Structure formats: C-alpha cells, structure tokens
TrEMBL record:
Domain RCK C-terminal: start-end pairs: 238-322
GO biological process: potassium ion transport
Alphabetized UniProt keyword annotations: Cell membrane, Membrane, Transmembrane, Transmembrane helix, Transport
Domain of life: Bacteria
Gene name, Swiss-Prot/TrEMBL: aspT
Main location: membrane
One Gene Ontology term of the molecular function aspect: monoatomic cation transmembrane transporter activity
Record localization: Cell membrane
Protein's name according to its UniProt entry: Aspartate-alanine antiporter
Transmembrane segments: 66-86, 92-113, 125-145, 195-213, 419-437, 443-464, 476-495, 507-527, 539-558, 578-596
Amino acid sequence: MRCRAYCSPSSAISRCCWRTRLLAAGRVADMPFEWIPAILRKSPEMAMFLAIPIGYVLGNIRIGSFSLGTPTGALIAGLVIGQVGIEASRELRWSLFYLFLFANGYSAGPQFFQALKRDGVKPMALSLVVVVVGVGVALGMGHVLGLDAGLTAGLFAGALTQSSAIGTATDALANLPVSSETHRLLASHVAVADALTYVFGAVGAILFISVIAPRILRIDLRKEASALEEQYGIKTKSDGVLSGYLKFAARAYRVLPDAGFAGRRIADAEQARHQYRYFVERIRRGQADIEARPDAVLLPGDVIVVHGRSEALVAVGPLFGKELHEPELLDFPVSILRVIVLKRQLAGPTLQELVDGKILSFRSVGMRSLTRGGQDIPFGASTTLSRGDIVTLIGPTQAVERVAGEMGQALPATVSTRLSVLGFGILIGVLAGLPYVDIGVFRLTLGTSVGVLLAGLFFGWLRTERPALGEIPQPALDFMINFGLAGFVAAAGLQAGPEFVRAVGELGVGIILAGVAVTWAPLLAALLIGRYVLKMNPLLLLGGLAGAQTFTAALAAVQEKAGSRIPVLGYTVPYATSNILLTTCGGLVVVLAYGWR
C-alpha cells in the first residue's frame, strides 16, 4: 500500500495521515469510509456519545403531540450504529444508569412517601392497577408467543414506555443460571423488544388517554376543565401570553383628617374591607419613619405606603387619603424566594383554610408558582400543599422571609450540587443491592439497580426531614435523569445492534400486537376502576392515567384538548409511584418469565 494514495507526495511514511497509519497497521480494510466503524469499535464510548445527540434530534421530532423522546431516540440510534459490532463499556453505561436511578428516586421521594400517608391513595391505586395488569399481560403474551425472558421484559418496558425497566431487567438477567453468552443474548433481546413496542406504547397512550377514554366516560374535556378550575379557584392563562395587568402594586398616600381610616389602627384599617388584600408597609411621620405595627394608629399628615392587589388599592385608596408620588418612600426591597414546604400542619388543609385558621399568614406576600414533583401546578384558594412542594413567594423582603419560615425553608439561589449526597447515596444503594440468597437454581437479590433507586427515594424523602443536608438543584437532577437514561439505553442499543435485524425477522408483527395489548389493557382497567370504583374526578383521572403510564406527552395531549393545565393535579402522585414500580418490575418480569418457561 502506498502512502501517496491518501497523503501528499512529499509526506514521509512517518508523517503520513492517521488514516493511512490505521491501514498500514492492518486495523482497517482498504475501503472508503471503513475507517469510521473501526474507530467506533476501538473507542466504543465515542459510539455512545454519537448515539445520544442523534437520539436527541430524532426523539424531539414532533408529529402533533407525539414524539419518541430522547431515550427512545438514543436507543434507536444505538441499534443502527451497533450494526457494525460495538462492545459498549459496561462500567460507563451502568454508571450513567445509576445517576439516572438516584436522581429519579430523589425527585420522586417526597411525593411517593406523602402519597403513602394521605389522599394520594386513590392516584397510587391507578399505578398499582397499571403495574399489576401490565406485568400479567406481558407475561401472558410472552408465554403465548414463546418469547424468552429478555424479549418479555423488553415487551413490558416498551409497551408501557418505561425505558428504565431495561436496566433493572438487564440487572436481573445477570442472576439467572445461564451461560455468559446466553445472558448477553437475552440482554440484547430486552433492548430489541423495547424498541419494537415503544412507538405504539407512546402513540397508544396518547390516543387512549386523550381520545378514547373521554368517549368511554362520555365527557366534554373543556366543560370538565372549566368546572374543576372554578372549584379550585384557578384562572387559566394562555401559554406565551403575558398580561399587562399588574396583580400587585404599591401606592403612597397622605392621611387626611376627613379620610375614612384616619385615627384608626393599622389592623382595623387592613380588615375594614375583608374582601380585599392590602397592607400598610411604611409610615413616615414628619421626618421620622414609624414601624408599621398592627396596633400603630394612622394620624392625619402621615405619609404611608400601602401594598396589595391593584383592585384593592383602587377601592380603598381614597379611605387612606390623597395619593402622592413618593419615589423614595416607594423604593423598598421586594424579594422573590423559592421555599420548600416542610411543616406538617400545612399538608392537608386548603390555602384558604390555612389563612382563615391563622396557620399561615400571607400578609403582604403573594404566591407566584407551585411546583410538585418537577411539574408546575395551577393553584387557587382550594389548592392543598404537600411536604416537598416548591413554592415561589413574592413581596417585601421581610414579609417573604417571615412566610418562608412559616412554610419550611428557603432554597438558596445556588446551582451547586451536594456531591456528598449524590456519591454516598449511590454507594449505599449499590451496597444494599449486593446481598443475595440462593434458592435452588435462582439467586434472590434486590439488585444494585433497585438498591440505587431506593436510595434515591430515601435521600429525596430525607431532604424534607433534614433540610440541612442540602438540596440537589432541579437542573442537575434533570440532567442526570435525561442524560443518564439516554446514555444507558444508547449503550444497550449498541450491544443489541447485531441481534436486532435477525430478531425483527423472526418476531414479525406478533410482538407488535402483543405490545398493543400490554399498552391498552392496563389503561382500560385503571380507567374503569378509577371512575367507577374510586369515584375519581374524570379530568384528574385522565391526568392520573398519564402519570401511571409515566408518559408526559399523554398529559400534554389531555391538557391541549381540555384547554387547561389542571389535569396535572392528578398526574404527579401516579407518576412518582409508577416511576418506582415500573422500573423495579423490569427485574420481576425477567424472573417470572424465566421461571414460567
């Protein structure tokens, strides 16, 4: 072979291009572009990091409300790239999967344990129905079609859109009494079956929850949403549209002798028009500033600042006196603070009951947002709080800090991650999953993947009990969840690539039809039980079904058709529960399917 075929004539062999060196070393066949697979085989981590961005682009292509999502896109990209025969690093892919499992459990922890204690029982029941029926139908379909344990587990994972079950299933396969070659084959089958059934799992969930289920229930989604919003005291806002109306404002007034509130205590003045919310924040008497205590008396000539809802200031402003333009007096600090709800007495009562019962004082403070389990929750007077909720408050700094102390603990404006919690949490989870008991030919063990997931649950719950441990920022959790799972399934696809084409040819449409049954049977069972046994509100039930299927796109489809975000109120608890149960059951399906055969 001559160097000049690939390099300039003046180049010596020692300075020849790197492709020629590979050719000269016999590592690459002398064919166009054959160097690409050779490099990927030599450095399989490059193949994984190639599959992730391709999967991101593929997974975020939208057709209406439907998209594959990054994990499934990465799996498909891995299957295609893996056709050239690439052995992905086990240590790298499992490290990424542990990051995903811990972050997933950490995010779900507060909601999961709260649901065990109180009104989350009904939404949790939806998850239990989906999981039990899903496992049963997957095992039944696998037995009828003669699928092995890997294909059955992949059928379960793909049809229920729970790609994380690939990891727990693969982990469980390692404990079966089979040869290493058989284990490798079964592990590749998990990814193959997941890829074949996931598409209908996603499309089928959207179609059932947003179209078929409302017809079965005979409801009009928009009418149900309007009635439920009115019940909760929630006003819907259009996405991407900002109102020019200022909900809160501050005004300065000079108290006049003939004003309605002259000579009255601040507490009396603030409660005189109980249908409005307004508060006296500052008092300037002559050249001195007077503390605006509830028992302070408003005297003629005082210049005061009143803060409250705009409609309240319009109604009660003349009762204070003459409005003034006082930039210096109106220049007081206003804070926006994120607070984690920790106080037990706040969980259960509605916001209105908390205020009326003097359990929580929102004097001078407004709520901007409520986040539960990573989802923004619409809120109103009838909304209830849960421990672990993140509330964003706005108002004068001292008032906001006071309310934050009454609710729980303010979250620092930091982007740093408490690596000690992350590292020790994963380590504890791995150690918890190592012990085993041999029962006949089976090895009974929790498994390192389930151990890490449970450790994430525990530390997520612990942060609501011991806030001093620190909070892992939500952006960091989102990265670990999205990138960790995408990297793991991409590596699983690389390993399963050579087996994919053969398996598709042998399985045919049978496994696709089996996936239809595994997708729709659990949803139908949960719908009927939720409506006619648990008596759930139909719109919250549909949100709960999307959560039980752990498929956010189905929730978005329901919200779009309802013209409201309120179905999310039924979504968060089933989502947290099913994320744990469906992931864990990947290993259970493997054991049961292998034992059945």
